[in-house]
Amino acid sequence: MKMIVGLGNPGKRYETTRHNIGFLVVDEIFKACEVKNTQDKFKASLAQVTYKGHSLLLVKPQTYMNLSGEAVVSIANYFKIPASEIIVICDDLDLPVGKIRLRERGSSGGQKGLQNIIQMMSTQDIPRIRFGIGKNPLIETSDYVLGQFEKESIDRVKEGIIQAKEAALLSVEKDFVSAMNQFNKR
Question: N or C: which terminus of the chain carries fewer CB neighbours within 10 A?
């Protein structure tokens, strides 16, 4: 079984913020997997599906970003999913808006939700899809990530969401390295 985790913050006020891009990607994966209902368990909204013959958990932690590890560790322990079978989708200030970058392991790069997951799982060997949200040096980082995407970047965001969804699903169907090879070239 694999687990795809989209990071974000719960609640209407955060729904379409830059920091919630992981939730937005998982919402697209819900559609692709024809998820009708989710369950609220383990401090997360989750759905258990089969995708092209593979068991898959789709997860949106409801703990707020900085405590995402609480939900991820609870689910991973319950379902006995190793870190290498978890794919985390999160925002990245250092990538241009809409650009995705896949990594098998590494530091959090300052992303606090990913940092909490790494800490709580005691490993950096967690595959992740980083989604570029850009940055604005004139705006405080916390305000920027909790802000909305600019109108002129919406098309790039939509394209990035589709790419991130496709990359995540390819990593389930084949493997994460195949997805990296295909999507990191773009």
Answer: C
